[in-house]
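[Q] Does anyone have a clean structure-token version of this?
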Amino acid sequence: FKLGQAALVLNASRRFRYTLDLKKEAQKEEVIRKIRAQAHVIRAAFRFKEAARVGTTTNDAPEAHADGALGFGIKEDQLTALTRDHNYSALQQYEGISGLANMLKTDIDKGISGEESDIDARKNAFGANTYPRKKGRSFLAFVWDACKDLTLIILMVAAAVSLALGIYTEGIKEGWYDGASIGFAVLLVIFVTATSDYKQSLQFQNLNEEKQNIQLEVVRGGRRIKVSIFDLVVGDVVPLKIGDQVPADGVLISGHSFSIDESSMTGESKIVNKDQKSPFMMSGCKVADGYGTMLVTAVGINTEWGLLMASISEDSGEETPLQVRLNGVATFIGIIGLSVAVAVLVVLLARYFTGHTYNPDGSPQYVKGKMGVGETIRGVVKIFTVAVTIVVVAVPEGLPLAVTLTLAFSMRKMMRDKALVRRLSACETMGSATTICSDKTGTLTLNQMTVVEAYFGGEKMDPPDNTQKLSAAVSTMIIEGIAQNTSGSIFEPEGGQAPEVTGSPTEKAILSWGLQLGMKFSETRSKSSILQVFPFNSEKKRGGVAVQVGDSEVHVYWKGAAELILESCTSWIDKDGSKQSMTPEKVGEFKKFIEDMAVASLRCVAFAYRPCEMSDVPKEDQRADWVLPEDNLIMLGIVGIKDPCRPGVQDSIRLCAAAGIKVRMVTGDNLQTARAIALECGILTDPNVSEPTIIEGKTFRELSDLEREEVADKISVMGRSSPNDKLLLVKALRNRGHVVAVTGDGTNDAPALHEADIGLSMGIQGTEVAKESSDIIILDDNFATLVRVVRWGRSVYANIQKFIQFQLTVNVAALIINVVSAVSSGDVPLNAVQLLWVNLIMDTLGALALATEPPNNHLMQRPPVGRREPLITNIMWRNLLIMAFYQVAILLTLTFKGLTLLRLEHDNPAHAEILKNTFIFNTFVLCQVFSEFNARKPDELNIFKGIAGNKLFIAIIAITVVLQVLIIEFLGKFTTTVRLSWQLWLVSIGLAFVSWPLALVGKLIPVPDRPFLDMFTCCCPGKKEGMFHIACFLFLP
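[A] Here you go.
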């Protein structure tokens, strides 16, 4: 038992955090370092070779037509070398990016054509964006792992010895049964275990592949479309924004404030600015700031990232906290079982050699001086085999298996429910969540934004696209600000078809409104040139752009949170285009309009600008560091954007409240908008609530750590929050003992996602940085999906508890029966083969039946599983003790009084003994079948509720019963059983059936809230040691 490992898991404050295997992580990092070093060596070798070649030949670029490959003007190896070596001089010799694009038959504005034939030609010429994957472990590898179990090895040796001795003493015709039976039973256990593990491994592989299947935007045929990263080809034009992953090697076509985090490839935590002088980008890196477009020049194995990914396998070997904890439980129970087995072995050997072990006819099995060596050894081997088999039954290796099965089952089903699990531990932890800090936009709302109100020229525009009252100059300025100050795009198809708008939901709403105002997107952008961009910043909640109009005129446009932009304005433009001073009265008028829109649950976005002279703009080589002026702005106007609540979100929040989970909304919108949406969603019920129930991020940020913890519990809505405010809220809640789930979609949400117990990123709007920092990806960005994830998380924990109750019942009953029988009579009613069959039922088949129970609404009517809640609850103790004592009572009664009760006193003694033991074995197995039904609903009276929805459970019960009938009726030679009459079958079924009404009555017995073992003063103060204290760690809080 790995005490160190258990201590990590059982530390209450860390229970739900995944504990890294530091040795394995170090080995993985070492592999990556070596591969990265090899890549750098290869690059250096190429550069050295190139330098030598340049020294002996002319420095002319190769002729494009001479190097053409499959119709393109450049070969695969040339492109690969260009990007790998970051060879800027070679790029210039190809006439820069435009010349390279021509060679690749790419329009840098419209991308490739996107036709199937063109894409296939590019894949043939330059390769696909895939890399060879390391093969997963084969089935035989899992068989070999199963064979390494020490107890099974001992049993195989015992089977071999028994087989040899049996053939030697009784001849091959009769002597092979005992040894072969044990050997076959062991092989059956091995192959069933290996098959189960292999299937789970395949499922995890499929989920890993799904994780890597990133969806990204490319420009093909002039329109932005979403494709899988695996469908990317050389020549593609890819728009990139902050938080995106660079999907392939390439060169920057154009960008604004564009910088890349290359630490994943270079190992150095350094942000690298990219521009026309440093345009090369490496696959696998992340966009740290800004936005731009890149031309793909190398894909798949031709990139360093592809080489890296092809060299490492995706087997994380992650062990969840519950798996580690159950490994400890299994080891602890195994030690008890081993102690019992040793005691049984000593007792049986003592009785055997002292002549107190008898045959069915009453004669002693061993008589000193009259027994041959072979016969004596065979008797000892039988005793030894029984002792080892007790260990096999006692060690509940099915516990960790059950966790693996339920996690694999849950992950597969969660995928269908639009939730992709990135870290296994999150499945368990989600069931313990006590609070969810949710974003508003796209999670609680539909993310289908439209401009429904507008206030420009000092007046409300009704409808919002009515510009008749505005002068042409004002309209032109509004349209120019919309078209240039955006990260979105509009594709204007030929033939009069409707334009296609792409970008974030807010950008799409504003661009669509611009189209209603009469904006011609491409034409408007062509009339002015962009000098500098300040990408939208979630801290400052604004984004800006400086554009040159004509020769010397410069306009700096800003848009962002209405009240924040208003604070920076010193004047405003009226409907005639005249600049007016921003008087206190006008400020109040603007604020009133903002509040009215916010009360109507509209997102308020303000537009402002500031004119400059070209002489105020730094020269081009110094422009990268130019900070756009954001004071003394001129207010153009404000729009109100409607984003309706998702249907059903109220029901989901109500369900969370019933389940003891508090939903908190954390949004960047102002307090009034946040209040209105919270009321609409059901997070708030009283419209007049005040601080701290509804609080502004700035106010929360300024509190001390202690004050934040006090306030955090009371917060329901946080408005105007920054990502750092969200992080502070998560820390405060966790310090208060909450298990916190957090949603996030932006790059700056990554720290909060990482800090939370469960980080949930958005699959549609989420950036790759956010996704990589999260534990679960909500693929449809829907809050209802998040609630389904909670149900699955609770189901994982509940299913494990069901299996623990079932297995411990079997453990307790089997151990007591065999120990009491061995000590009292020198024999055991259940032999090695029978115990192996019971082991198979309770381990693999039991795990399959109970670990795949789908979630139900009852799970959402109980409080979350607490951090300090014991693994085995008082309800489980009550249920398993009642069942175990009942089974022990009837089976011991049958062991000692079976011959009389079954009226076998006058039968042949040998046959009567075998018949009695067969009946005991049959009753014991059928008791487990009925016990499995009881384990389905530990705290509900109706054990059949929802059983029709779990076809696997029904199938496993049917298979178990059918195999039991076959064993009793047809395989007696192997299991040392005889056929039972239909009357004895009915009695067996009747005795097992009593389990159901007994369990029903037992569930009416109340249990105390205080943990059962805690009543035995297991407080474990200080650093005490010993098995009893380990048991306290495992079973108690």
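[Q] Thanks! Anything notable?
[A] Residues 1-22, 56-67, 1017-1037 have pLDDT under 50 and may be disordered.
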